[in-house]
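[Solved] Which block belongs to which protein?

Original post:
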Amino acid sequence: MKNRPRERRSSFIHRGSYDAMDSTYEAITNHFDEKRLEAKDLFIEYYVTDPLTTQEDNLVIEVYVPVK
C-alpha cells in the first residue's frame, strides 16, 4: 500500500434521521463560509451506526469534507 500525503479535511457528526441531513449540510456550508474555507467537490459519509439495524432517529453519521 502506498503512503498517501495527508489531506486537510473537516469532520462533522450528524445525529438523527437521514431525512434531517439537509440541516447538517447547511451547517457545514455555513462553517466553511465563516472560516473562509473552500471544500473540494467530495463529501464522505461514514455510518457509525448501522442504518439497517438502528432506529432512524438514533443514526450517527460522520461527514468528512476535504479542504482545497
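(Second protein starts here: sequence line, then its C-alpha cells.)
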Amino acid sequence: MFAGAGTGKTRVITYRIANMIRHGIKPEKHRRHDLHEQGRAGNARTLDKLVAREDSKKVFLGTFHSFCCRVLRKDIKVLGFGSNFTIADDSDQAGVMKQAIIEAGF
C-alpha cells in the first residue's frame, strides 16, 4: 500500500483484519507487521476494541524484527543450528568487536 503520512493506512488495514475475523476468517491466518513497537502496540489496542480479545490475541501483530526472529526460532534447525540463540543489539555487537580486536592483538 502506498500513501502519505496521516492518510489512514494503518486504520484501513486494522479494520480490514477485524472485518475478516467477523466474517469467519480465522484470526491466526492474519499477519500485521510494523516497523516499530509503538505502531504494533497501537494496532493491538485498536484490534482489541474491534473484535473479541481471544481473537485479537491470535492475530500476529509484530515488528519485522520479531517476525523474523519467530521464523528463525521455528525453522533454524534445518540449517543445523539450535533455537536458543540471542540476537545482539548495537551495544552487544560493539562489545564483541572490541573483544575480537583485543584478542587479535590490534
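Accepted answer:
You had them paired correctly. Confirming on the second one: Residues 90-104 form the longest helix (15 residues).
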